Amino acid sequence: MKVLVPVKRVVDYNVKVRVRSDNSGVDLNGVKMAINPFDEIAVEEAVRLRENQLASEVIVVSCGSAASQETLRTALAMGADRAILVESDAELQPLAVARLLKAVADREQPGLVICGKQAIDDDANQTGQMLAALMGVGQATFASRLVVEGSAIQVTREVDGGLETLALKLPAVVTADLRLNEPRYATLPNIMKAKKKPLEALPAASLGVDIAPRLRHGRHEEPAPRKGGVKVADVAELVGKLKNEAKVI
Amino acid sequence: MKTLVIAEHDNTRLAGATRHAVTAAALLGGEVELLVAGDNCGAVVDEAARVAGVSRVIRVEAPFYRDLLAENLAALVLSLVQLKLYGNVLAGSSAWGKNLAPRIAALLDVAQVSDVVKISGRGCYQRPIYAGNVLVGVESDEAVQVLTVRTTAFDSAGDVAVDGAPAPVEVAEAGPDLGLSTLLRREISRSERPELGAAKIVVSGGRGLGNGDNYQRVLTPLADRLGAALGASRAAVDAGYVPNDYQVGQTGKIVAPGLYVAVGISGAIQHLAGMKDSGVIVAINKDPDAPIFQVADYGLVADLFEAVPALTATL
Ligand SMILES: Cc1cc2nc3c(=O)[nH]c(=O)nc-3n(C[C@H](O)[C@H](O)[C@H](O)COP(=O)(O)OP(=O)(O)OC[C@H]3O[C@@H](n4cnc5c(N)ncnc54)[C@H](O)[C@@H]3O)c2cc1C
After folding, report:
1. Where does the record place the Electron transfer flavoprotein alpha/beta-subunit N-terminal domain (chain A) (predicted)?
2. What is the CATH number of the domain that holds A88?
3. Pocket-forming residues, ligand 1, beta carbon under 6 Å
4. Going by C-beta distance under 8 Å and a sequence separation of 6 or more, which residues neighbour residue B309?
């Protein structure tokens, strides 16, 4: 079984982004970029499946500009076997990405797709679900445990009240939550090896799907900062403030 | 143009998120209909019909809707939208709504807007990105607007007056059973405490608690005294102090209680994303430079193992 793992290049999670002074967007000049943390977890899960002989090949795919090659190399260094860059310099919204991934899935026929549950830039949390819909297959989002059993999987999901476990037929789409695994660090020899692994670049246009943005993003602004608070000296002062000033207890 | 709100429920009770979504739906103009799909869910239908602002309840029952799984529900909503020409489809942005809405949007071949916090009119929204560090205006001309709405940004719709008439209930036919997924089990935490997403006071603990026993021993009495829900940082959940549904943050629950007490939490942006719209924030942390103090109304630099029991005793 092939496992397909879509990965996205995003602003590193440690960076606090700033809005451009004309409010037209976020200033990404010189900002550190990284593989989306949830996608990293997805790659790790796929690589473990292959290491446990439950998958034959792990293919990572990224939709975006040439810079996403770096993200794909990161995934290859973690142990993915080969990479596909669906290249486009245009803005790609979740529906467009899902369509491109569907086209790649048609070509590769993966038994399983593992996505990250959301990208930490647009925080949309849509692509996996959309891809599952377009492929006409089952979905198990926010996964914290994945068990492959022949042509089916069992997935434990993090839901609002706790956990739920689903059984799905393969092919299926799973989206990874934080506690699915702890991704490995790529070792230097593996980083070197990754440079030689196959990375195929496909122009997005060659896949023949409509990727025009459907949503227009207008004004970007930073939320009003909270008013500066005070430090209290001790518990007694804290309780006094909560009772008499804030009146919340 | 009519709006269809999809009800989240457990065949017994309507989830809180749905009432917030009804309030948001009213801002789009036009009638608001509430879809209750389930199995033996009569109690939910009755409850739904009494939610103020709902003009009609659409009731669809089949055994394969019992667990409200996304595949069959999305197929049902697709056929309802085509049949009844809804212009908008809404769900609360709970884990359930986030799982379902994008699937519906893709079947309808439209974009979806996640986590809407402001509706200025149909097709004109605001939503947070980058862990809530940026708010962006989003415009959409899609024929059907599919949205998830952040519950903390819209009030909960109440009930119609006791002597008021409930909304009419229309029974609609079930859609296909696709058989793509089945529920094996749910492990839902049962608690006497208020629900984290809806509580007026939240007491949250982080890695500073050290372990699960400490978390329970130190925070539970405080939460009991305050009638508060308990929450946690990702680090506390990852380390197994508390179950996953306690996590507050960018990728956990978004809460905005009147009072949020952060104990032994450093205040990473991913955590702040989930709680910085709280009314009053209290931080107890031994590190005076912890970023949590930048958002705290009242900061107490102290060892939590001394300060929290003292606080509990004083209340
Ligand atoms: C993709 C991604 C998503 C994430 N999503 C979330 C999310 O949704 N929610 C979330 O919370 N995090 C999230 N995180 C993790 C986040 O970046 C932080 O790692 C996490 O919030 C830290 O938790 P903490 O504050 O409990 O731990 P730490 O950062 O380790 O802080 C512990 C604090 O306890 C204090 N302390 C220790 N001992 C004592 C004592 N005796 N008395 C008083 N204070 C004490 C310390 O001074 C310190 O400030 C995410 C990270 C990533 C990469």
Report:
1. 23-211
2. 3.40.50.620
3. A 13, 37, 120; B 206-208, 233-236, 247-252, 264-266, 268, 270-271, 274, 285-287, 290, 303-305
4. B218, B221
